[in-house]
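Weekly modeling sync, notes
Attendees: S.R. (lead), two postdocs, one rotation student

Agenda item 3: backlog of single-chain predictions. S.R. asked that every request posted to the team notebook include the full sequence so nobody has to chase files. The rotation student volunteered to paste the first one in as an example of the format we agreed on. Action items at the bottom.

Example entry:
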Amino acid sequence: MSWAIHKTNETTGQTIYIKTEGNKIFSGTSEDSAFQSWLSANKDNLPTEIDKQVKEGTLTIQDAE
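Predicted structure, as returned to the notebook:
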């Protein structure tokens, strides 16, 4: 499943991302390791909204460790 933008945390200003697998919902911020792994693996085929954030520089794909 693909990650998507859920909302922006009003207190921290961080974007919250979610993905659904069956009846489970996963969420995280741009620093979340599972989200970053997915970003890195799919950097050439990201959903439009997430790709826009990467191109604008508001979302960074971190180097794999």
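Discussion: group reviewed the output briefly. Residues 4-56 form one domain.
Action items: rotation student to repeat for the remaining queue; S.R. to check formatting next week.
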